[in-house]
Write a structure and sequence with these properties.
The chain has 311 residues and is an alpha/beta fold. Strands 1-2-5-6-7-8-9-10 form an eight-stranded mixed beta sheet, with helices on both faces. The chain has a two-stranded parallel sheet with strand order 3-4. Helix 5 packs parallel to helix 6 and helix 6 packs parallel to helix 7. The structure holds iron/sulfur cluster. Iron/sulfur cluster binds next to helix 3 and helix 4.
Length: 311
């Protein structure tokens, strides 16, 4: 049981978080159109008819109207319950069901019906599975390839707890883009990604870049960070340098938006000019393509990011 003092502290902290969130009103550059088109409804039906999940819905992405109206979506495989408890994320946490063996085929079928020439696949963390979901990723890549041989595939994977063998299973399935998000600066890991480790995430990028150099010259390595969680500009620039040192090809930088009431609060809204500054830092440090803006997400305009990162 909490002591009265601790309970008061928790209450005070909760009140502070809410009042801060109320004080930080969303600036105009974060306003999005909520219009839906025929395409939007088609994507919605495909997703539900094939029992699929998308990170667009689960993460309450602000770009869902734009992306779905253009018939692009990011599939989230391995269920909709995550084994980790990151403070920025709105995906349900808990004990997930076993993976659906039909999901790779269903994902491929939905991708075919959407007429995708670029598919983005991500997942929840599955620390409960012996292979942490690596095999399921590979089967999903294979299933899409066999239906859509010309479709480019981007996977946004978990860190597999640093297990190189599991990372190798996904790399050997030969996606065009291997993405893994660093998400935030090292100093905020304990608060934002308590189960993950900054150096382990950088190691995923390093391994992917090495794999590209040794086996797959077409492969691109990609990562993303959120801003507005309380980091300093110096910490962001240091993070960009660390990412560049891994040989990563593509970096996305976007505004963190608190997705639900008990998620971490937004500490700051960055201006478009500040995003430009961060993009320039990435390019100056040798990252081939950097997308930086308030509504940028790792899967936002992913096909363009891939095209623009060619050497
Ligand atoms: S940016 Fe990505 S997650 Fe958001 S709606 Fe678009 S495809 Fe979905």
């Amino acid at each position: 049981m909490y002591s009265t003092g601790l309970r008061l502290f928790r209450l005070t902290r909760g009140w502070f978080a809410v009042s801060r969130r109320e004080r930080l009103r969303r600036p105009d550059w974060l306003k999005v159109s909520l219009k839906t088109s025929q395409n939007f409804h088609e994507v919605n039906s495909l997703v539900s008819n094939h029992s699929l999940h998308t990170v667009c819905q689960e993460a309450r992405c602000p770009n869902i109207y734009e992306c779905w109206n253009q018939k692009t979506a990011t599939f989230m495989i391995l269920g909709d319950v995550c084994t980790r408890h990151c403070g920025f994320c709105s995906v349900r946490k808990g004990k997930p069901d076993p993976p659906d063996p039909d999901e790779p085929a269903n994902t491929a079928r939905a991708a075919e019906k959407m007429g995708l020439d670029y598919a983005v696949i991500t997942s929840v963390d599955r620390d409960d599975l012996p292979d942490e979901g690596a095999g399921h990723f590979a089967r999903t890549i294979d299933a899409i390839r066999s239906r859509l041989p010309d479709c480019k595939i981007e996977v946004l994977i978990p860190d597999f707890n640093g297990n190189q063998e599991l990372l190798g299973i996904v790399l050997d399935a030969r996606p065009e883009v291997l993405g893994h998000n660093v998400e935030t600066v090292e100093a905020l890991y304990r608060r934002v990604r308590p189960v993950a480790s900054y150096s382990q995430s950088l190691a995923v990028l390093e391994t992917s870049s090495r794999y590209r150099n040794e086996h797959a010259p077409e492969l691109r390595t990609k990562t993303g960070i959120m801003v507005g969680l309380g980091e300093t500009t110096d910490q962001l620039v240091a993070t960009i340098k660390d990412i560049a040192a891994t040989g990563c090809d593509i970096l996305t930088i976007g505004q963190y938006l608190s997705p639900k009431r008990n998620a971490l609060p937004v500490e700051k809204f960055y201006t478009p000019e500040e995003f430009d500054y961060l993009r320039d830092q990435a390019l100056d440090n040798g990252i081939k393509h950097a997308e930086s803006g308030p509504l940028v997400r790792s899967s936002y305009h992913a096909h363009n990011q891939f095209e623009n990162s060619g050497s």
